[in-house]
Design goal:
Blueprint: H1 15-27, H2 42-53, E1 64-69, H3 72-90, H4 95-103, H5 108-111, E2 114-121, H6 138-156, E3 159-164, H7 169-176, E4 182-192, H8 201-204
Antiparallel strand pairs: 1-2, 2-4, 3-4
Helix pairs in contact: 1-6, 2-6
Domain Nitroreductase: 25-192
EC number: 1.13.11.79
Family: Belongs to the BluB family.
Length: 226
Amino acid sequence: MTTSTALAQAAPFSTDERDAVYKAIHTRRDVRDQFLPDPVPNEVLRKLLEAAHHAPSVGLSQPWNFIVIRAQQDRDRVWRAFQAANAEAAEMFEGTRRDTYRALKLEGIRKAPVNICVTCDRSRGGKVVLGRTHNPNMDVYSTVCAIQNLWLAARAEGIGMGWVSIFHDADLREILGIPERIEIVGYLCLGYVDELYDRPELEVKGWSRRLPLEDVIFDGKWQGEA
């Protein structure tokens, strides 16, 4: 008796398909301010979430959930929580660095028509999850993969996305009703944009720069600082 196994062909993409993948990767940007008010159609949002849901996950546990926030009053509450944390963050920098930080426009929460809070349910899959036995953080890493899938799909659809990380965890839990056992991984702002920076915004505005690839590749063993 033979057992048939469904296998997909692993042939390379066509040249145009490969170019499209790399274009999405290299032109993806963290959008902070330049969102348009145009609504994101439900069918497009569904496609983006479907892309996120097709991310790899440890033990096929799929630990993510996506809380979609559209109502202006809800986004305003989240923005106020962000503003409080952002004021605290500014005080952690000094001199011109603080001034540069304060000059960055971070209005995505209120301007983007769709916000998504991405969470990780660390109990999904049970106490012992294949692939997580010796690294308990693999479920969180899997959830980050889902966010990256969503980000690249959004870029392909002409939708900008920003990842907001300046929050007190407890504030988001209260506003969105997230239980303590659930890990908050990312708060995302999505909306159409009419233009994107040709380089990361923080590079354009002098905050940092992309490191040369050669500086982050080690051959065979660790070669950085001990």
